[in-house]
């Protein structure tokens, strides 16, 4: 795998490190020229130190091998001091702390050997100075490594938090869309079903009197007008929070049934639910009855519908709709699926299906706390 490209910041740091290493190496070499060693060793000392400085341009790729090479050169070279310090820091920055300790130990052993090779009289002072510099550079490298790891951790957490926030926003948007779709289905489905019944009656009764045609047309007009008003209300709050959508109440249930009766649907309502009912339970019961009436008009037009809404605080609320179902039920079942979802939101349940006597039964139980 190829090494990552060197950034402008890396070029700056490498250039500064290279210049400082040369300066430190020249200073250390000038102080060691008076050591009692052969001139050939001094020449090798200088040139090997300068070559080692050149290797600093590759220190990120081969940090450990170059640090070990610097330790070997440091056995006899004063000019290796500068690049050795830089390489010790580089290992501490880029490699695990165990590797850094091994590199430090090798350089410590090289320093002890250097003091013997160069015949340093003040070897204790030289040892203390050398180890202090090594420890300072290693500590600086560990600090840089820890800071980078901390910043990377914070960046990762920020990325994860952003991802989670995006997913939550998408889920909230999806829930809002589903809620809006349910509201539009519930609000408009019932009105349009009634409108369809009266329009169908006009189509199948060409012998109807003028008064009957006028009455049916008036009902169609009123239903269409009310459906349009409902649609405007829903569209007007599409950008508002879902809680602000127009919501019916349990007290509106008799009016809903009466509207179906006015449309010519024989509805028998039994309502026995005394007591203060939570809004969300009453609203869910209203939607269940509304969807049941819509399905009855759609799949069994003209057939009688029996509705029973009974319950009390602490016992729960039971909602049951029955109507003959002579025809095979059609549709994709989205309305009933929406009712199941509504009931589940209030920890209730919905059941539906044919009874042994051939009727279609829609039953729901909703919790009603005492």
From TrEMBL:
Keywords: ATP-binding, Kinase, Membrane, Nucleotide-binding, Phosphoprotein, Transferase, Transmembrane, Transmembrane helix, Two-component regulatory system. The chain crosses the membrane at residues 12-30, 36-58, 65-93, 99-115, 127-144. Its EC number is 2.7.13.3. Residues 177-241 form the Signal transduction histidine kinase subgroup 3 dimerisation and phosphoacceptor domain. GO terms for cellular component: membrane. InterPro entries: HATPase_C_sf (IPR036890), Sensor_HK_TwoCompSys (IPR050482), Sig_transdc_His_kin_sub3_dim/P (IPR011712). CDD domains: HATPase_UhpB-NarQ-NarX-like. GO terms for molecular function: ATP binding; phosphorelay sensor kinase activity; protein dimerization activity. It catalyses: ATP + protein L-histidine = ADP + protein N-phospho-L-histidine. It comes from the Bacteria. It is an enzyme of class 2 (transferase). The keyword Kinase applies. Residues 314-337 are annotated as: Disordered. PANTHER family: NITRATE/NITRITE SENSOR PROTEIN NARX-RELATED, NITRATE_NITRITE SENSOR PROTEIN NARQ. This is histidine kinase. It comes from Kribbella sindirgiensis.
């Amino acid at each position: 795998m190829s090494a990552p490209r060197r950034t402008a910041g890396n070029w700056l740091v490498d250039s500064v490190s290279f210049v400082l290493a040369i300066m430190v190496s020249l200073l250390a070499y000038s102080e060691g020229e008076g050591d009692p060693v052969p001139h050939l060793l001094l020449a090798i000392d200088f040139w090997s130190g300068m070559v080692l400085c050149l290797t600093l341009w590759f220190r990120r790729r081969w940090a450990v091998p170059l640090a070990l090479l610097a330790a070997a050169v440091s056995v006899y070279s004063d000019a290796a001091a500068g690049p050795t310090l830089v390489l010790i820091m580089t290992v501490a920055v880029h490699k695990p702390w165990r590797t850094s300790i091994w590199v430090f130990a090798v350089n410590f052993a090289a320093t002890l050997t250097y003091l013997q090779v160069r015949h340093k009289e003040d070897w204790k002072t030289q040892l203390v100075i050398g180890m202090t510099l090594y420890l300072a550079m290693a500590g600086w490298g560990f600090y840089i490594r820890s800071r980078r790891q901390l910043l990377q951790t914070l960046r990762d957490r920020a990325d994860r938090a952003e991802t989670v926030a995006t997913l939550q926003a998408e889920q909230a948007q999806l829930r809002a869309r589903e809620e809006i779709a349910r509201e539009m289905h519930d609000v408009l489905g019932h009105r349009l079903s009634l409108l369809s019944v009266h329009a169908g009656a006009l189509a199948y009764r060409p012998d109807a009197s003028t008064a009957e045609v006028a009455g049916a047309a008036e009902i169609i007009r009123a239903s269409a007008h009310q459906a349009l008003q409902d649609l405007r209300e829903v569209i007007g709050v599409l950008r508002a929070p879902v809680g602000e959508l127009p919501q019916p109440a349990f007290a509106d249930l008799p009016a809903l049934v009466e509207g179906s009766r006015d449309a010519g649907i024989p509805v028998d309502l039994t309502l026995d639910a005394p007591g203060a009912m939570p809004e969300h339970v009453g609203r869910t019961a209203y939607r269940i009855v509304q969807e049941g009436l819509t399905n009855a008009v759609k799949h069994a037009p003209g057939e009688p519908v029996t509705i029973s809404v009974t319950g009390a605080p602490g016992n729960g609320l039971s909602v049951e709709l029955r109507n003959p179902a002579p025809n095979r039920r059609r549709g994709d079942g989205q309305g009933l699926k929406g009712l199941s979802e509504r009931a589940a939101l209030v920890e209730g349940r919905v059941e539906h299906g044919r009874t042994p006597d051939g009727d279609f039964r829609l039953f729901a139980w909703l919790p009603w706390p005492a």
